[in-house]
Amino acid sequence: MAQQKEAWGSRLGLILAMAGNAVGLGNFLRFPVQAIQNGGGAFIIPYLVCFLLMGIPLLWVEWASGRFGGASGNHSTPFILNNMDKRRFWKYIGVFGIFTNLAVAAYYCYLESWTLSWVWHTITRSFSGQSQEEVASFFTNYVSLGSSEPIIFWVICLILNTWILSKGLSGGVEKVAKIGMPLLIVFGVFLAIMGISLQSGSHGAINGGSVGLNFLWTPDFSTIWNPKVWLAAAGQIFFTLSVGMGSIQCYASYVRKKDDIALNAMSAGWMNEFVEVVLGAAIIIPISVGYLGIDRVVELTQSGGLGLGFRTLPFLFEQWGTVLAIICGVFWFGLLFFAGITSSLAMGTPWMGFMRDEFGWSRQKGAWSFGAIVLILGLPTVLFFNQGVFDEYDYWAGTVSLVVFALAEIILFSWVFGMNRGWAEINSGSDIKIPKVFRFVIKWVTPFMLLFVFLGALITPKGNDWVGAFSNGWQLDNSSIIKQITNSGLREQISTAQAAGDLETVAILDEKLLYITGARLLLLAVFLGIGYLVFIAYRKRLKQGRIA
Amino acid sequence: MSSAALIMMITTIAVVTCVTGYFFYLVLKTPPKSEPDSYEDNDDEKR
Question: Model's pTM, two decimal places?
């Protein structure tokens, strides 16, 4: 079968695409919330330490693994990992690198479609004259599928992603990154200036922008030795860089051995940090605190940054008058859209690379099949959003799988593949001299930190009280992986409702439990399905003599 | 803003912006490797 050659157009395009892969909605919605919940300005210390000791090493490991696999014609993690060690199970560990992308894309594209829809509603002035409650209930109605509009925007978003992917790396993904990333930064700088320059008493603001910045950046150094803060920092670094997904390896597999990866990884990684720390911290909190005050913002951030971004900001922009409300709304949701699409495009490439390498599928066939899978897999997240399906995908595919896969790949790279070969691979063609201390960091510190993150999620103590857990007996929190598996939190809610004789709530929670179980089974089926495809591909390779 | 918040914010923003800018400067000033390389935009250039 004739196949189009896949390649990057330029080095800058590759870096922007990698940075776009890392920069997501979390840079603007998750980071500031994590900071204010974990010591304010002091959070930046464990955050940057984790970036240096876990984030950067993982970026180098993933870039190096990808390029190493690409040299043998492998563009997805099952056979990239298998290429690094011949033991058969590695290719099944590599299934995570396709599964995670498909499952995350399934709900992430829905989230991305909200940004498109909010741009549309900003331009058509849907939020004009609405109270804060009305803007918030607009979001609630939207995700409750009060009309067919969410489905329409979601399908548009899926078609857009699929069409861009069908244009290939240089003709599609890279072009979007080259347009999207500079625009994202311009939009972000404009909104940051608006946030910082907010004046008390102007346009109904009760606080100046500096109050929000002060709230965010005032360091509470008493939190610095709390394991909860370090886990939050490590988790934020982990998710913001899109490591443990398999998409970085796929992008890097199209880089030749003689070309640099070390400087490229640093440039893309630090660009993500710039967007997150410099821009992300200067928009949502200063503007929200300016209008709502610190107490209300603390209350709103208990449920994460998503609500603040979609339910609150459109109302706040409206306080600035028609023209600025339109400009800021389009810039804010446009920025989130570019952050989203540059990430979701990266999620399509591992599947396309795998089907192309193993089954000779054309780029178009790979792209449209990705769109079809995301449509089928994503439909439950759209239809049963309020029943917790969206959150279930996010937890298992977008959180747990990443940590498990990253832990496996760092062990493979530094202990099985070996640091001698690994270090040579990272440095091959390098345009910078990497300090030798990172050799030690990659072998010892990064795996330990990942293990710390994994165990922290597996056995999270009650109330996230790590200090108390050692002295008071280790009771697990309902957010721990172990308790999540048993649906402990939901079952407690059901028991409470039963004890109170609230049969209506019991029925709702029972239904939720059913949907959550269904979502888990679906995700498991997808994982096993990809595993089976890997098995078929392995048999094909054996027959063709491509593996001994 | 309190002095502690201001110091924290300015130091962090300065460090992150400077390091990001420095690496981008390195990328832009480093001459491309000889063909064949990983990038197709310069494939028509003299080898």
Answer: 0.95
